[in-house]
Design goal:
This is Peptidase_M16_M domain-containing protein. It comes from Caenorhabditis elegans. The protein is mostly beta strands and about 130 residues long. It has a domain of about 90 residues: Signal recognition particle alu RNA binding heterodimer, srp9/1. The protein is about 5% helix and about 35% strand. It has a six-stranded mixed β-sheet, with no helix packed on it. It is globular.
């Protein structure tokens, strides 16, 4: 399997997306087949609303389960890397998986070539 993108938080292969440090408390990786993705949202961490994010686990304001990133939801308490972004994918009717990406341009270039043309891609995260 060829790896098209990889960083500390995620690995993108030709057929699957591997979200690192996803499961609590084991930090096991979550594997998502690319054909299962129906919607993808992404936004820079600096502009992303903190009510939709969480350091790890299910966000209370949105039905997103976030993989571990201790600096994601700290806001003004700790400087966040301006190059990091949050990504949320919808898999099936009720499962939304959230994770961080270090280089959003490189990640999006790689995943756009692999996703089905029916997948909706939104450049901000504003979920109920």
């Amino acid at each position: 399997m060829s790896i098209l993108y990889e960083d500390e938080y995620v690995r993108l292969g030709q057929f699957s997306l591997f979200v690192k440090n996803y499961h609590f408390p084991t930090k096991k990786t979550k594997t998502v087949t690319l054909e299962a993705i129906t919607t993808l949202w992404f936004e820079e961490q600096e502009t992303c609303k903190s009510v939709t994010t969480k350091i790890w686990g299910k966000a209370s304001a949105a039905s997103i389960y976030w993989a571990l990133d201790v600096k994601r939801a700290l806001g003004g308490l700790s400087p966040r890397s301006p190059s990091k972004s949050n990504v949320v994918i919808e898999v099936g009717a009720k499962l939304r998986v959230g994770f961080s990406v270090e280089n959003i341009d490189e990640f999006m270039d790689a995943i756009r070539t692999l996703l089905d043309y029916h997948v909706i891609i939104v450049n901000y995260i504003n979920l109920p």
